[in-house]
């Protein structure tokens, strides 16, 4: 079968949005660790081939990754700690090993010439101590927790194995999702606002957040997969706004909530991701946080 497209972790947040943009689903394969009836029925209804399984398993991974032309590699643990306070070392090890093991299985078993689009993270700079420091793609990475260290190691694995890849270092991804996926701050604030809950601004909300819409993430993945790239890394953030500004957007569209300043410590003040490289490809961001909040709360 020609032009086979594989989406790993395709039953998740970004995967669901990506599915909406892929018109020809005949040669599409979705793999995810979820094996519940609800997920299976969903893909049956969409007439998309769905395979439930764990890509950490080498035998399973070998079957999945061979004879594929394009891989959108989204598989991995996403609900992770955002601070090192009371960190669970066992869970940290699981988070790191999960992403790295799957990537090792991928590069070992994919066919020659297979294109790989991989979402990394802006958190590869999370140990930055300088407020509003500007990072470019060639800046030295400063990871700290297992999630960012795992993503960075996956980047290194792709680079070392002569893979035809495109890496997108995503900001904090927000957008409409199931309640259990509304855990990162841009999503959590709007969900709490929907429920008429006040918003706590740690350290007065001074922290800068690098954010991007899930709709733009999916658009960029499809866009970049159609370009003639080889071994390219892109920073991918549409907005840099403070937690206080995020809170203000929410309170603007729900007058019943209050913004409460606290003295709680924050892990870092925030930094800026230079995204000029992705913009030079011709990609244009079309979705912004203020519009998302308005739509979600109205």
* Range of strand content: 15-25%
Assign a percent range to the helix content. 25-40%
CATH class of the domain at 5-177 and 212-238: Alpha Beta
Largest sheet: 7 strands, parallel
Can you tell me the CATH topology of the domain at 5-177 and 212-238?
Answer: Rossmann fold
- The class by helix and strand makeup works out as alpha/beta
Which second-level CATH architecture of the domain at 5-177 and 212-238 applies? Answer: 3-Layer(aba) Sandwich
**Overall mean pLDDT score?**
93
Distance between the termini: 46 Å
Taking strands numbered 1, 2, ... along the chain, how are they ordered across the largest sheet? 3-2-1-4-5-7-11
Topology as H/E string? EHEHEHEHEEHEEHEEHEEHEEHH
Q: How many β-strand stretches? A: 14
Q: How many whole angstroms does the radius of gyration measure?
A: 19 Å
What are the segments in which pLDDT stays under 50 over at least 5 consecutive residues?
A: none
* The CATH homology group name of the domain at 5-177 and 212-238: NAD(P)-binding Rossmann-like Domain
Tally of alpha and pi helices: 10
- Give the overall shape: globular
Structure report:
Helix content is 37%, strand content 21%. The chain has 298 residues and is of the alpha/beta class. It has a domain at 5-177 and 212-238: Rossmann fold (3-Layer(aba) Sandwich), CATH 3.40.50.720. It has a 7-stranded parallel beta sheet with strand order 3-2-1-4-5-7-11, with helices on both faces. It has a 3-stranded mixed beta sheet with strand order 8-10-12. The chain has a two-stranded parallel ribbon with strand order 6-14. Helix 1 (13-21) packs across helix 7 (214-225) and helix 3 (58-65) packs across helix 4 (89-109). The model has no long low-confidence stretch (mean pLDDT 93).
């Amino acid at each position: 079968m020609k032009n086979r497209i594989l989406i790993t972790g395709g039953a998740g947040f970004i995967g669901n949005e990506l599915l909406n943009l892929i018109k020809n689903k005949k040669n599409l394969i979705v793999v995810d660790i979820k094996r519940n009836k609800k997920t299976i029925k969903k893909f049956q209804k969409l007439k998309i081939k769905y395979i439930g399984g764990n890509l950490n398993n080498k035998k399973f991974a070998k079957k999945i990754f061979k004879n594929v032309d394009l891989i959108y590699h989204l598989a991995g643990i996403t609900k992770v700690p955002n601070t090192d306070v009371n960190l669970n070392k066992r869970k940290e090890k699981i988070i790191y090993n999960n992403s790295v093991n799957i990537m090792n299985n991928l590069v070992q078993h994919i066919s020659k010439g297979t294109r790989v689009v991989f979402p990394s993270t802006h958190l590869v700079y999370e140990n930055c101590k300088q407020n509003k420091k500007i990072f470019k793609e060639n800046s030295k990475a400063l990871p700290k927790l297992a999630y960012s260290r795992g993503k960075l190691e996956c980047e290194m694995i792709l680079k070392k194995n002569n893979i035809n890849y495109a890496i997108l270092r995503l900001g904090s991804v927000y957008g409409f999702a199931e309640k259990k996926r509304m855990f990162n701050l841009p999503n959590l604030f709007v969900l709490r606002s929907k429920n008429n809950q006040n918003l706590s601004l740690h350290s007065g909300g001074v922290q800068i957040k690098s954010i991007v819409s899930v709709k733009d993430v999916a658009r960029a993945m499809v866009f970049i997969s159609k370009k003639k790239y080889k071994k390219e890394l892109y920073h991918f953030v549409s907005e840099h706004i403070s937690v206080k500004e995020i809170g203000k957007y929410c309170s603007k569209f729900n007058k019943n909530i209050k913004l409460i300043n606290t003295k709680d410590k924050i892990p870092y003040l925030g930094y800026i991701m230079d995204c000029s490289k992705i913009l030079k490809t011709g990609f244009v961001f079309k979705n912004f946080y203020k519009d998302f909040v308005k739509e979600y709360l109205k």
